[in-house]
């Protein structure tokens, strides 16, 4: 339920419209390819996550194999990617509220202007973040009960929406009668949609399950089940929603061209176009509740991530304070709330925020295949409740695919996100200086590959195809070939730069507590 609530958030309300606008009917393929890509990434994390079930686990893995500098960079990226989902879900609720059609709700129409939040909209989004925070403030148990209710609602309403829209109007002609009509903007648009239309953003929310692994009973079994089942169900829902959205569009909309689709509240607006006013009311209600579910789940996940980072000895200890009867990391929750307010001020619409979240999340996920490959060399005898066969092949492929997906997020978003991640480095160096820069040469060498990799991806993004925001010096699809070759080289550099630090001893202690299924 946590996995489903995180994955089926605002993506179902905006993703279909954004993807159709970019790729036309071929957006269906974008959701399918995105699901396969994220499932492969998830398999790598299932192996690592079941080896080390702990709070904020995603912020810890790289420490074990490459030391504190690389661990800090990845934990910072992971925290930012989780944290940014709080404002995006708050913005999603506010954006849908801005088109409420009822007479009593006229006051909400001032929330958006020219596709951006107004000062009123910013205040409403801030209220939503307060709700996310304070439901988490009082224990995981309360949050779980609230979350389970919303998770059921998130599944039921999209299914009802699809059934009603198909019954009211479904035109197979919208899919196109030939290859050109099905893919009006070419094959590159499919990959642009994956990176820019909220597809990657929606699916990668599976990591919530791993970050909450310390609160899950029988983590060696249930982390795997939670991720696989939630990804499978959500993929079916998202693909079906995209098919229904395209088929249900009236000709008055499609005749203007796919790029002209511009709904503030896509499924509610579509229901109104088809004169199904009760459905629009249901969608408007769910559009308010659904992001609340994701916001609550990610407020918890982001706080776990931040509160676990002081264990790495490069952030103040008070961030990990959970000294209350509910064991909630309340200081981390408050810090996250304040940073979320800042992010809302910087990024004032759903589309832009989803691109930023996708790029930062993907950069943080680069650590997974590197850690998995390195652990096969460093700790071949560690307990692996879910041991993935062929990891020596899967890990470099996943690393290459993540690098490609970062490229799909489009220039200059890729560079902007890389800069935001680098901002976290001065904090590390202040704390490392206090500790006398111990083992600094090893830590720097273990991290150098990432610096080169991010710089290389930024350069390729700039030089790459105009379809992905570049100057078109390297044309599509040769830009993909360049990234695949470059990333493969970087992966093998990464796993050969591992080193045995004291954090690896911590990893062995945690792993020793893991119970295998046969135990």
UniProtKB/TrEMBL annotation:
The keyword Membrane applies. Keywords: Membrane, Transmembrane, Transmembrane helix. InterPro entries: AA/rel_permease1, AA_Transporter_AGT. It is a multi-pass membrane protein. It is found in: Membrane. The chain crosses the membrane at residues 29-48, 69-88, 121-140, 152-170, 182-206, 227-250, 270-299, 331-347, 353-372, 393-411, 417-433, 445-464, 476-494. This is Amino acid permease-associated protein. It comes from Companilactobacillus futsaii JCM 17355. The lineage of its organism: Bacteria, Bacillati, Bacillota, Bacilli, Lactobacillales.
